[in-house]
Amino acid sequence: MSGGIDSTVTALMLHEQGFEVVGITMKTWDYASSGTGAKGKKETGCCNLDSFNDARMAAVQHGFPHFILDIRDEFGDFVIENFVEEYLAGRTPNPCVMCNTHIKWRALLKRADALDCEFIATGHYANIHQHTNGRYYISKGLDDTKDQSYVLWGLQQDLLSRTLLPLGGYRKTEIRQMAESFGYPELAKKAESYEICFVPDNDYRGFLKRRVNGLEEQVAGGWFVDKTGKKLGQHKGYPFYTIGQRKGLDIAMGRPVYVTHIDPDTNTVVLGDEEDLNRIETTVAKVNWLKYDAVADGMEAITKIRYKDKGNLSSLYSMDPQTVGVRFYEEVKGIAPGQSAVFYEGNDVIGGGIIQRY
Question: Is 99 part of the annotated catalytic residue set?
């Protein structure tokens, strides 16, 4: 229970349905542990003290227990360090996927076991089904505008078998109405937080500078180059750019140019035209299979390469048990190493992994 509308309504729905509910709020981050140095700034998102109180109040009012679970050490050791390491490797990470995959679900399941709870539940807009082959898998939520199946590809079978996602069959408008009917009209109007919880000002570049002592000196003197290697001008450091970036390059080329490649070994950032972002294939590693335990070479799937991507028809080719080659039927734009590639069969998630090459 983050204190927001989705997790609160989830808890109250289950309570109303007769489940014995225990509310858990996770403390994942604060300024002291993240090294933001943002004195005086209010914590936001899932680490807002007001949100903790909102979650506890809902539990108290409806007569079920509530606990705060401190997972800052695990979160910092894995999610934040991974975030920094990926940018230093010239990739663009997705910390929410890493948090769901490696931290939140595992931490919640441990507490569920300690409290003798049978299931864990969250307020994600997605569904869980069990295939005739016995495997559990994620499918898209009813509300296309809120569907979160993309960020849940990393959940393993033991987690999925004990997870409930009550909001998967509802639209956000219906959940707002439920919040009002439960007596929380202010919650129905509460603004949603979309920023990374440990980068509340959305300035990941500033976060990296504060997190890595001397980072600016380490990456100073790098060059923007074109695809032939010709120097175009100096940049501010390769970790501060992402594939597909057009704005904020601070270089005059007389036409729009985009970041098409990042080479941390040479501290160079390649710029090109929009069509230079087009790719026909990519390699995906650390794959977690959901609906099937493996896929046949050439299996067709809709592959999404970012959260807001509508997906593109592709063929999957197994390279080893956890690495897949993806060949798209048509060129796709802006494939970024470090981001997640998620494979769909209709609305069902076949599996997903981390983009390695493009």
Answer: yes
Name the residue ranges covered by the structural domains of the chain. 5-123+165-188, 213-272
Residue 329, classified by CB atoms within 10 Å of its CB into exposed (0-12), middle (13-18) or buried (19+), is: exposed
- Average pLDDT value for residue range 277-306: 95
Higher pLDDT, 221 or 271: 271
Per-residue pLDDT tens over the stretch 322-340: 999 999 999 999 999 999 9
The catalytically annotated residue of 46, 47, 96, 197 is 197
Give tens-digit pLDDT for 177-204: 999 999 988 887 777 766 688 887 888 9
The chain-wide mean pLDDT, for the chain, equals: 91
Class of the 5-123+165-188 domain? alpha beta
Assess if CATH 2.30.30 describes domain 213-272.
yes
Q: Which one from 46, 47, 96, 99 is the annotated catalytic residue?
A: 99
Asked if residues 310 and 64 have their Cβ atoms less than 8 Å apart, the reply is: no
Query: Residue 74: what pLDDT?
Result: 87
Q: Rounded to two decimals, what is the model's pTM?
A: 0.91
